């Protein structure tokens, strides 16, 4: 009955392509929030420290092979195993900043193709295991062109870090972005999706991120944590 008692901290996800500066900006943001006296927890997916995360890590480093369906479900399970912790933190007033989430899960898996270039996993199949996860209040999608990404020294050595794959991943993210902005039913729900031009200088991007995040953190959020895509 006391409306203020249901106030909680916001759940903020930073998504984006490889080489988009996402991880740098995520840790800058977390530091800046902490520095402003905001109780903050930085979460990263995949969380490579859990037993499931170790299987994912080994797969990404090509130290092991897994069926495409199986590894997709491991990525999702890795989020589900942390979901109760995320909910608890938000309710307790801790702002959660998350580096990658279910949107990466769909974008990367749905971009895997066979030798003929046909998709290995349907888009909707990729979404299903993540339906019902804690929904972010805000997603900042770090978009960057492959040319800019290349200027930044190219991709690393892990699985998926190849140009054709990254082009498909970018398209998949754009499809998700459209959905999150326009389709109320399967898309946005309680989540606000903002695309950030990550091809600009680090300080410019940092300023934009702060402008988007600061009011949400200062104001807090009313009501329980929503469920993604329900
Ligand atoms: N990735 C990440 C997926 O394929 N599915 C997922 O659900 C998530 C969270 O793992 N190339 C991919 C994206 C990256 C790789 O991420 C490792 P990072 O942020 O480089 O540790």
TrEMBL record:
One of its GO terms (cellular component) is nucleus. SUPFAM superfamilies: P-loop containing nucleoside triphosphate hydrolases. The keyword Electron transport does not apply. Pathway: Pyrimidine metabolism; dTTP biosynthesis. Its EC number is 2.7.4.9. The keyword Kinase applies. Residues 14-208 form the Thymidylate kinase-like domain. Pfam families: Thymidylate_kin (PF02223). Belongs to the thymidylate kinase family. This is Thymidylate kinase. It is an enzyme of class 2 (transferase). Gene3D superfamilies: P-loop containing nucleotide triphosphate hydrolases (3.40.50.300). It comes from Gymnopilus dilepis. One of its GO terms (molecular function) is ATP binding. It comes from the Eukaryota. Keywords: ATP-binding, Kinase, Nucleotide biosynthesis, Nucleotide-binding, Transferase.
């Amino acid at each position: 009955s006391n409306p203020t008692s249901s106030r909680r901290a916001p759940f903020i996800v930073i998504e984006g392509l490889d080489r988009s500066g996402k991880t740098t900006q995520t840790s800058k943001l977390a530091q800046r929030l902490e520095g402003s006296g905001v109780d903050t927890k930085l979460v990263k997916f995949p969380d490579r420290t859990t037993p499931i995360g170790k299987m994912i890590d080994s797969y990404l480093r090509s130290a092991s092979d897994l069926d495409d369906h199986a590894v997709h479900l491991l990525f999702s399970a890795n989020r589900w195993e942390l979901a109760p912790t995320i909910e608890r933190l938000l309710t307790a007033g801790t702002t959660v900043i998350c580096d990658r989430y279910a949107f990466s899960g769909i974008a990367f898996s749905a971009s895997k193709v066979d030798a003929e270039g046909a998709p290995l996993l349907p888009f909707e199949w990729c979404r299903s295991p993540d339906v019902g996860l804690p929904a972010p209040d805000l997603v900042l999608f770090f978009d960057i062109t492959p040319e800019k990404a290349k200027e930044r020294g190219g991709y690393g050595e892990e699985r998926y870090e190849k140009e054709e794959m990254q082009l498909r991943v970018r398209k998949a993210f754009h499809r998700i972005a459209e959905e999150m902005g326009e389709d109320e039913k399967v898309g946005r729900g309680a989540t606000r999706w903002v695309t950030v031009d990550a091809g600009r200088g680090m300080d410019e991007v940092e300023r934009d991120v702060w402008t988007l995040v600061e009011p949400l953190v200062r104001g807090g959020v009313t009501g329980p944590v929503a469920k993604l895509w329900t």
